[in-house]
Amino acid sequence: MKLAYYPGCTLKTTGKSFETSALESAKVLGLELVEPSRWNCCGTVHSLVKDDVMHHLAPIRNLLRIEQMQASGRIDEKRVVTLCAMCYNTLKRSNNVFNNNSDLARKVGENFENETSNYSGGVTVEHLLETIRSLGWSLVKDKVKKPLAGLKVAPYYGCLLLRPRGIGIDDADNPHVMEDLLTALGADVVNFPFKLKCCGSYHTVEMKEVVADLSHRILKQAEEAGAEIVATACPLCEFNLGDRQILVQKKYATFKSIPVVYFTQLTALAFGLEQATSFDENKPDPKPLLKDKGLIKGDLK
Amino acid sequence: MNEGKMVTIYVMGKKQIVPADLTIMKAIEYAGYQFKRGAGCRGGFCGACASVYRKRGSYKLQGALACQKIVEDGMIITQIPFSPNEKKTYNINELKADASTFLEYYPEITRCLACNTCTKSCPQDIMVMDYVQAAIRGDIALTAKLSFDCIGCGLCAMRCPAEIVPFNIGQLARRLESKYVEGPTEHVLKRCEEVKEGKFDSEISELMIMDKKILTNKYNNRELRIK
Amino acid sequence: MSYSNEGLILRFSAENMAFRERVKELSGEKIELCFQCGACSSGCPMTEEMDYLPSKVIRMAQIGIKEALNTKTIWVCTTCFNCEVRCPRGIDIANVMEALRQLVLRTKHDNFNLDELSPEELKTLPQVAILSNQRKLSA
């Protein structure tokens, strides 16, 4: 099945491991994720004020590209799969605003005068977790070559994957899609309440000490619940919970570092696609833990 | 032919009747103005004569090069001789050919709204938004390719609502492309070696003391195409 | 707005009403429905950095107190929508925060200027962090 795939700018730069592991894992499940030849930054976070048109141009322009892809036969249906939770949220919400506000739709159309076609509003935006869920967990189980046995994984959802209500891919109070995936991959799932708590998001730019505090709270609780590794679905969460652990350790002397990876890296690992896991790019390094568990052999490069 | 046909244009608000087949630049000079700034090569290559105009009866704001664009009836024109921008100082030898370089020197690139205003303003018909977005993605080769015709006129930078200066992005990308992606060209390197080895030393010494008539003759009869 | 000595009596002026209406218009939220239960504040991850709790800022907007625009709260919000999920009256508090931010940003005021970032920070920050920061905190 050929579906459109919207990367988002960060997956082409600091989040490359997310993309690599996702595309290869998707292939195993029979999904060919096709990137548009022309796309632009989605402009996350979604603009929340009611009179804004300009900030919706970027996401809707991408949805137009998806429609054009379908019209030219590069993909089968007008569906676009995203990996980054922030891109997912922005594209989906702007799509909804476009479809529910004819005045905005008209203004967007006027601004698209250089485009060869107009957006009709007919694209469905989904997150890869939803796509996999719709294929069924038994298919996932079938494809597992190396069950993540004995690996205690804490799924971390963050905010924009589940909220606001109606946009989220699962129940905002009690989601379980990531747990289901990790269970199908053979891992030991560690549930912890702060899996829904915000990591501090963009405040990592100007208030990184606060992000260190939030990350500490989240990771400490995950560790206390028994987690050995955290799985996330957003490159900003991965940075705030992962890379920022250097700040956390400076502030909290007793903090024990814990690796943070993308759920697709674990999926690739379970599917036997070691070369697509890109564990070299994660900070802190998950390889010692994974080697300990007998899940990877040695250095992957 | 447009012989004798005149059109009305407005130069900074003042009405002028000018021949219809003149460029904006020539028309402004015809009207008696002298360009102290905002004129350069007069050949569409230096980007000094960036102009902005509207036509009477239309809301559309358009960008053009004064030395290239022929006047049209009802044009209301002004020049933008300089577009404020700061070209960051960098050492090309220390840079990496990926997106992080743009984030480091021009972090405002992340503010791009994909509104396409830059593309609409460009007098060279460049897909400016596309090359800015390519830079955001770290696709240096595409940024360089799409921005190739940019002459740095500054119209895109003046109109960008995110306050980005696209032509600085394009320039950095082209430099990174040529140094790191394309790499040095073989024949240039070879020639530099030959020069260092002194292959051309005697020829040059000869030329430097040559009689002017013989030199002129040699020049006029030089081989124009290397086989 | 006038206060009386016998306890607090709030008299709405036209200016207060206008501010409240503007916030409602920009956010699209029925802020009059808020009955100050505090559920939004209890779920907010950033309350320790705030000067006023989210529920208090909504209260300010409700009665048209323009000081809402001067709070640290509106800038510290991370747009995580935890408040939206918890509000029993269906108000999206994050939308109200955004409306308040926009009312300030639209007066040529940036809350965070990229010029303040050091080259080291620019080298390590993921793009999505810088761009979402600018979306919410700059004009």
Describe this protein's structure:
The complex is a heterotrimer of chains A (301), B (227) and C (139). With 301 residues, chain A is α/β, with parallel strands linked by helices. Chain A folds into two domains: 2-129, Up-down Bundle (Glutathione S-transferase Yfyf (Class Pi), Chain A, domain 2), CATH 1.20.1050.140; 137-292, Rossmann fold. Chain A has helices spanning 16-28, 54-71, 85-100, 102-111, 128-135, 137-143, 177-184, 208-224, 235-243, 245-251, 263-270, 287-292, and strands at 2-6, 32-34, 79-82, 124-127, 152-156, 188-189, 229-232, 260-262. Chain A is globular. Chain B is of the alpha+beta class and 227 residues long. Chain B is flat, with a radius of gyration of 23 Å. In chain C, helix 1 crosses helix 6 (93-105). The mean pLDDT of chain C is 91. Chain C is mainly α and 139 residues long. The longest helix of chain C has 14 residues, at 14-27. The A-C interface holds A 8-10, 13-15, 41, 43-45, 47-51, 55, 84, 86, 159-160, 163-165, 172-173, 196-198, 200-207, 210, 213-214, 235-236, 239, 243 and C 25-28, 45-46, 48-49, 76, 78-82, 84-85, 92, 94-95, 98-99, 102, 112, 116-117, 121, 124-133, 135-137.
Strand content of chain C: under 5%
Question: What number of domains of chain A?
Answer: 2
| Gyration radius over CA of chain C | 17 Å
Please identify, by name, the CATH architecture of the largest domain in chain A.
3-Layer(aba) Sandwich
The spatial strand order of the largest sheet of chain A comes to 2-1-3-4
Q: Which CATH top level class of the largest domain in chain A fits?
A: Alpha Beta
Let me know the average pLDDT of chain C. 91
CATH fold-level name of the largest domain in chain A? Rossmann fold
Helix residue percentage of chain C: 40-55%
What class do helices, strands and sheet pairing of chain C give?
mainly alpha
Largest sheet of chain C: none
First CA to last CA of chain C: what distance? 30 Å
How many individual domains of chain C? 2
